[in-house]
From TrEMBL:
<dbReference type="GO" id="GO:0046100">
    <property type="term" value="P:hypoxanthine metabolic process"/>
</dbReference>
<dbReference type="GO" id="GO:0032264">
    <property type="term" value="P:IMP salvage"/>
</dbReference>
<keyword id="KW-0460">Magnesium</keyword>
<dbReference type="GO" id="GO:0006178">
    <property type="term" value="P:guanine salvage"/>
</dbReference>
<keyword id="KW-0963">Cytoplasm</keyword>
<dbReference type="InterPro" id="IPR029057">
    <property type="entry name" value="PRTase-like"/>
</dbReference>
<dbReference type="GO" id="GO:0000287">
    <property type="term" value="F:magnesium ion binding"/>
</dbReference>
<dbReference type="GO" id="GO:0000166">
    <property type="term" value="F:nucleotide binding"/>
</dbReference>
<dbReference type="InterPro" id="IPR000836">
    <property type="entry name" value="PRTase_dom"/>
</dbReference>
<dbReference type="Pfam" id="PF00156">
    <property type="entry name" value="Pribosyltran"/>
</dbReference>
<comment type="similarity">
    <text>Belongs to the purine/pyrimidine phosphoribosyltransferase family.</text>
</comment>
<comment type="function">
    <text>Purine salvage pathway enzyme that catalyzes the transfer of the ribosyl-5-phosphate group from 5-phospho-alpha-D-ribose 1-diphosphate (PRPP) to the N9 position of the 6-oxopurines hypoxanthine and guanine to form the corresponding ribonucleotides IMP (inosine 5'-monophosphate) and GMP (guanosine 5'-monophosphate), with the release of PPi.</text>
</comment>
<dbReference type="GO" id="GO:0004422">
    <property type="term" value="F:hypoxanthine phosphoribosyltransferase activity"/>
</dbReference>
<keyword id="KW-0328">Glycosyltransferase</keyword>
<comment type="pathway">
    <text>Purine metabolism; GMP biosynthesis via salvage pathway; GMP from guanine: step 1/1.</text>
</comment>
<dbReference type="GO" id="GO:0006166">
    <property type="term" value="P:purine ribonucleoside salvage"/>
</dbReference>
<feature type="domain" description="Phosphoribosyltransferase">
    <location>
        <begin position="10"/>
        <end position="159"/>
    </location>
</feature>
Length: 179
């Protein structure tokens, strides 16, 4: 797997330090709100784990499995909800936890759905932001790192369900996904 990586963008240590920094900001901003950390599966799992272990306020954890990629390297433009929330979001403060914000298309649909369901507030914390990929106007409130327009894997991010277990974020060699 490591041989398929063109360049490491962020090490395990850099990611963990950034997660701790973001967690402290969330802790301040949501001190009295008992938010729901909503992880979007599957890529958010390492990041939500690192975030929540640094947050010293009451939080609930929920997950949704929402996809617009369906195995490729670009968004299909169609959002599918494969697993919905188990808890009502009515009058709750929701923090969507994402591994990466690229086109913004999936997040735009999820945010609209949560607001429709009566959430008191909805914000996004993302480990990675790729603004050059955006097709929907949106700006996550909490951003770990900005990245260039490249196909990245590791720390939850995948290509065809592989590479999620890499402990760093790296750029995948083009020959891996161009075959």
């Amino acid at each position: 797997m490591h041989n398929d990586i063109k360049e490491i963008l962020f090490t395990t240590e850099q990611i963990e330090a950034k997660a701790a920094e973001l967690a402290k900001q969330l802790e301040i901003d949501y001190a009295d709100k008992k938010p729901i950390l909503l992880g979007l599966l599957k890529g958010s799992i390492p990041f939500i784990g690192d975030l929540m272990k640094h947050m010293n306020i009451p939080v609930q954890i929920e997950f949704m499995d929402v996809s617009s990629y369906h195995g490729g390297t670009t968004s299909s433009g169609q959002v599918k909800i494969l697993k919905d929330l188990d808890t009502s979001v009515e009058n709750r403060h929701i923090i969507i936890v994402e591994d990466i914000v690229d086109t913004g298309f999936t997040l735009d649909k999820v945010i609209a759905l949560l607001k429709h369901r009566g959430a008191a507030s909805v914000e996004v914390v993302t480990m990675l932001d790729k603004p050059e990929g955006r097709v929907v106007v949106m700006e996550p409130k909490y951003i770990g790192f900005n990245i260039p327009k490249a196909f990245v894997v590791g720390y939850g991010l995948d290509y065809d369900e592989y590479y999620r277990n890499l402990p760093y974020v790296g750029i995948l060699k083009e020959e891996v996904y161009m075959n």
